[in-house]
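Field guide to reading this record: the first block holds the primary sequence, the second block holds the structure written as discrete tokens, and the final block holds curator observations. Each block starts with its own label. This record concerns FAD-binding PCMH-type domain-containing protein, catalogued under organism Lactuca saligna.

BLOCK 1 — SEQUENCE
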Amino acid sequence: MSYFLLSRFLELLVILSFAHFSFSTQIQQTFDQCLSTIQVPDTFFTPNNPNFTTLLNSTAQNLRCLTPSYPKPQAIFTPLNEYDVQTAVICAKKLGIHLRFRSGGHDYEGISFTSAMDPPFVMIDMSKMRDVNVDLDDNSVWVEAGATVGELYYRVAEKSSTHGIAAGLCTSLGVGGHITGGAYGSMMRKYGLGVDNALDVKIVNADGKIMDRVSMGEDVFWAISGGGGGSYGVILSWKLKLVPVPAIVTVFNVQKTLEQGCTKILYKWQQVAPNFDDDLFVRVIINPMDISGTTKRTISTTYNALFLGGVDRLLDIMNSSFPELGLKKTDCSEMSWLESVMFIAGYPTTVPTTFLLTGKPAFLNYFKAKSDFVKHPIPETGLEGIWKRLLNEENPLMIWNPYGGMMGRISESSTPFPHRNGVLFKIQYVNIWSVPEKEAMKKHYKWIRKFYKYMGQYVSMDPREAYVNYRDLDLGMNDKNGDNTSFEKASSWGRRYYKDNFMRLVKAKTEFDPDNFFRHEQSIPVLPGKGF
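BLOCK 2 — STRUCTURE
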């Protein structure tokens, strides 16, 4: 390159950088000015604010999405009430500013606080809206979007030791986004998903109006209750049904390794777990582990369980239906339902239940995740192939969650979440690493994509189903420039997440948000002829 061309190239870079800086500053200033009617200090943060990065990182679950290569918001707004959210939406629409919304920061691809799309964006962080109002007489609870499920569980148990909520296993999940994707947990076989127990919702639509189930209509309520977050409006709060739980429940962890015959035991689990008593939930956590005192590794399978009852009835069920596990009374612990929440989430018994009020996650990692649904038992030869591949990676993890029970008695179309009757169990794949470097990310991405390809022969097909709350941008994404995406293109992930419910979601979106104001990498698209 000649000196002249090099000089012109550097000059252009400076101009583009200044233009980007000016555009970013314009977004920050105009949005801030529009929000000035709220007149509440310490609710608007730009990158120049010393608290900006701390706030951005505060609830981000996947550290991968905080690395320098990931775009950051032009500003963060932390509303204190419903009016603040209304104002933010009205300002953003008026000024043509793209918004992202974060309730708990658990989106696996970080799309609540970062973006793989071109338009710059402002993040609305709901963490200051976390009220929980339990009404035992009405057998329900209203919970704001920024509260975590751990806070929700604690407040319910505070009022009653015999009421609970059918929702997530991870206690730092933000309620707002969690429920919109389905919300499975350890009582799913007894009571179904969080969305199966959703009674009402409050949202802000694209015109800045607050709407509930009646005013939005049943089609939109249906779409929000399992159709994923960020497509129809801003979730303000959910009204959820309280479910009965015993004063005393039973939990256990039982580990089996290759040396203890874990392959045959897991093969049997696939056949019996979906048919267990509805009160029993036994998931399996699978990972490679070092063999103490050697340089060798083995496979660990940990059976992590909640039983809605006492230990004696649990032992009767396990001894008759799954004696291969060899469960003993000494493996089991009886406790309150709230204490079982802590146990299932992996907290040590020394951590008090009041920790749930902090809203903090138990673990933070760099990771990439995927999901699958299994409809036929994976043969022992297939399990051996899984072991071989897991042992060749540093820190992979699989979690197998059993279905059956209530999950098989709810129709595929009752909510957008379609993975119901006929599913034996769901697989969550997680590949974890501990450093931010790009090369590490590329290496671990490559492994999980290859492993996912291998698993294709053993899981659902046409479509190969996936869980929207384990978001995976490898399945496809909307047009990077932010323009409307065709139905055909969006179907690449839409049918995997929602199966035949995808078309109904698109129709509801087209009617409710025809300008496609609420959009992100995998938001529901609008039909042709609509929108901007």
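BLOCK 3 — OBSERVATIONS
Confidence is low (pLDDT under 50) at residues 1-21.
The CA atoms of residues 268 and 507 lie 43 Å apart.
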